[in-house]
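Dear Dr. V.,

Thank you for agreeing to look over these. As mentioned in my earlier message, I'm a first-year student in the group and I'm still getting used to reading structure tokens, so any feedback on how I've presented them would be very welcome. I ran two proteins. I've put each sequence directly above its structure. The first is here:
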Amino acid sequence: MNPMPSLKNSLSAPEKKLGIVAGGGALPKQIISWCQNHQIPYYALAIQGNANPDIFTPDMAYEWIRIGQAGTGFKRFKEEGVKEIILIGTIKRPTLSELIPDLRTTAFFARIGTKSLGDDGILRALIKEIEHEGMHVIGIQEIIPELLVKEGLLTKKKPDKEDEEDIRRGVEVAEILGKLDVGQSVVVQQGLVLGVEGIEGTDKLIERCSNYQRKGKSAILVKMRKPQQDLRIDLPTIGTNTIENAHKYGLKGLAIHAGNTLIVNEQEVINLANKYGLFIKGIIPSEYQQC
């Protein structure tokens, strides 16, 4: 698989500035640090109630914004001369107070009719709105392609024949869920689906499924990009927290969509999985489809 070309040279041009919409998790800090290390001009909008305040320091170019202030965000990016925008980090379902929209956001939701759209549909509509403003949305993998999970076994531990059958089952279910815009992850044990990801996210799915594990071979997690999912937004992501939870709640390993899943601090993730005796395998879903 050929990696996506880096945009570093393009972003280095004086007229280019990267706009970062920062949600939760470690990825916003990683992309800001990358910009600082490579002298790439940037401006970040940190989403209140989502972005981690601890990652923002006085030397960073950023401000806080509510999730309902899309109009304010567009205006600020334009004032900063932003040309490229990256949406990165997790966004929790907002409370009513967080969702109180500015006029621009109200018009946006009225236009797209949110009742008929899932999360991916809303994000795609948001991208269209951003690009209507003359800015371009890019994916983090276009800047730092090495963040994508590689194909093949990443750990010392490897899945056995029965694990491979569970992976096959997980791929089958995850693809159906993805087409319905439901979730990205499935937990499978001995051919049985213990749980599928909903609104709660992967970590809570792993915890929930621990209540249903049976004796014998432990369960595995299968995590895949939704078939219709735009590669620029909301890619499946794993990090050290994923591995800690997998170990805590008795999983044997993870099968992750290669080239379509982000891995935060890859070496730390691999070292931790090796410490706990878990496997991580980057998979190509088509290789697990029934003929």
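The second protein is here, in the same arrangement:
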Amino acid sequence: MNKNIKKVTRKFNNPLAIEVKNVTKTYVLRHQKPTLIENILYRPKKEIHTALNNITFNVHEGDRLGIVGSNGSGKTTLLKLIAGITKQQKGSIKVNGRVVSLIDLSAGFHPDLTGEENIFLNGLVIGMTKREISEKKQAIIEFADIGKFIDAPLYTYSSGMKLRLGFSIAVHSDPEILLIDEGFAVGDENFREKAHNKLVGFKKQGITIVMVSHWLWELERSCDHFMWLRSGRVVSKGNIKVLKKYQQYFNHP
């Protein structure tokens, strides 16, 4: 009993990797483009959409957080805020560690450059040095497993090939915090298994992972903490029971 208590105590004493406090993010939606006259004479019609509504949660170093929720619940918006891609209107987000995000597969890639050239381009975008990229280039190519296409321009790649290349660059960049969106469910079975094994290795290294997916089976085997978002609010956060509650709601809303 005492041993268990000590383990739990150490767990909760882990430093915070991500601290999200009272965060609200809104977007202005304009349903039609106003004319110049309408802009001058009338107030343009617009709607405020609240993507995230006063949410608060923490992620400790080494945690692997899986986030679930229906489309439009705010999952990807949350990842973009943590990554610094966009900014919240209210609240604060503190991130402690080197963040690497795999959110938009096209970000940091150029369609006219080859796969190898895009490794350097994307690597620089996510904060790697040229020396780091050169040292890890071969490992990135081998993990991505896109064969002779590494010398072909990116516009010839399938979605799955872009995914594998982007994921490979991200996981070889020595992240301290890795953010993963829906993306890697696009890969084939062999790649998904390889990606999962890489994430398992990250757990042993104490790397923090925040993953968003509708693929609950992958979240269940890759993560140890879970959070359910609905309409921009946190419904529940905790252990595997969160996924079970989400499944029950989804099947019997």
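From my reading of the second output: The first strand starts at residue 16 and ends at 29. The radius of gyration is 20 Å. Does that match how you would interpret it?

Kind regards,
E.
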